[in-house]
Amino acid sequence: xxxxxxxxxxxxxxxxxxxxxxxxxxxxxxxxxxxxxxxxxxxxxxxxxxxxxxxxxxxxxxxxxxxxxxxxxxxxxxxxxxxxxxxxxxxxxxxxxxxxxxxxxxxxxxxxxxxxxxxxxxxxxxxxxxxxxxxxxxxxxxxxxxxxxxxxxxxxxxxxxxxxxxxxxxxxxxxxxxxxxxxxxxxxxxxxxxxxxxxxxxxxxxxxxxxxxxxxxxxxxxxxxxxxxxxxxxxxxxxxxxxxxxxxxxxxxxxxxxxxxxxxxxxxxxxxxxxxxxxxxxxxxxxxxxxxxxxxxxxxxxxxxxxxxxxxxxxxxxxxxxxxxxxxxxxxxxxxxxxxxxxxxxxxxxxxxxxxxxxxxxxxxxxxxxxxxxxxxxxxxxxxxxxxxxxxxxxxxxxxxx
Length: 402
Ligand SMILES: Cc1cc2nc3c(=O)[nH]c(=O)nc-3n(C[C@H](O)[C@H](O)[C@H](O)COP(=O)(O)O)c2cc1C
Ligand SMILES: [Fe+2]
Ligand SMILES: [Fe+2]
Fold this sequence. Notes:
- Helix 5 packs across helix 9 (299-308), helix 6 (208-217) runs antiparallel to helix 7 and helix 8 runs parallel beside helix 12 (383-401).
- Strands 1-2-5-6-7-8-9 form a seven-stranded mixed sheet.
- It is α/β, with parallel strands linked by helices.
- Helices cover 34% and strands 26% of the residues.
- The protein has helices at 58-68, 86-89, 92-98, 108-118, 186-204, 208-217, 238-250, 275-283, 299-308, 325-336, 356-366, 383-401, and strands at 4-7, 10-17, 22-23, 27-28, 33-42, 45-49, 78-80, 103-106, 124-126, 132-134, 139-144, 154-158, 163-167, 225-228, 257-264, 289-293, 309-315, 318-319, 322-323, 343-350, 370-378.
- The protein is built from twelve helices and 21 strands.
- The longest helix has 19 residues, at 186-204.
- The chain binds flavin mononucleotide and fe (ii) ion (FE2) (2 copies).
- Residues 83, 85, 149, 168 line the site of one fe (ii) ion (FE2).
- Residues 266-272, 317-321, 349-355, 379 line the site of flavin mononucleotide.
- Pfam families: ODP (PF19583).
């Protein structure tokens, strides 16, 4: 790849990561992910914002682009670390070895993380909230935005050009050959939309209250370009991605989309036998419904749809006196991601004494789900069970429709 020019003396140096690995060791990336770093040449100072992990050729790719921008060995004044997660710092020791006198600027909390992760203490300096750094003709300003996505996170604003280097915030999964939002094809924009929602739900959702606080903090800034460390650079519509993140963050407390996510598992078809009644009941009120079979659908995609939806239906049988294990795992992920308050139904089959419902009730309480009904039956469902399922699903959909 070649560096992409954002403004005079401002470049993105990016790496495209393929789909072989799971992101954070959990989340599939069938279309890969971008790792974006940024270079600023201001006056006589040279700055690199956020790094990469030595992953799928990323370090070599970034290295080559730095060389092409005349940032050869020793020729760098500052490294800015907005966020310590290894996708943005994994190659830190190697990069610092190339620029031994470089100054590393980061948040207060990042100082000890740098020490413990990379054993680097020399030339590391914490910046304060709102502090500015004069590069000669270009000014950087730092804003502490904790917990988007680790406690040490900050953002860096290039004042003269109005560029916000936001790291994980405003990011997306997926690889994009073109750097900017306005360079994407129609097809790429559709992909970007779902990969932004999935990235948010998987990586950021549990920090939604901090996202809302962080965005409020940026309110007074004249942001002309949003430059995240994953995904594309938003220059034609910087407000679009900020407002989009605000909406995604709002899904935690609500309001959410008038949609229903139906997650179901079945070993021998007895639980599945009720699925069509549930789906038809929801559809009869005209609501969009996302039907997701577990474990066949990875929790990454389940969480994406559950995050946005006001309605949640869980279908699963009893397994060894408890919930069907893959559904337990999915509910654990949903609970950790702060999925709360959904209007909910549960259905499922058992063989002799059940047990799934008891364990589900614990999740329901912990997640403050607004449970609208349960259809549980021994063996296969009766016509009466099917009718009840249809009616309960319809009533819930009607309530969501408002
Ligand atoms: C490995 C296994 C464990 C089960 N454990 C229980 C159990 O502890 N209690 C119970 O009532 N039924 C248990 N069952 C019976 C199932 O809940 C029952 O067959 C149900 O109809 C399965 O629904 P499905 O066809 O949707 O998979 C178990 C079934 C299997 C295969
Ligand atoms: Fe992160
Ligand atoms: Fe990241």
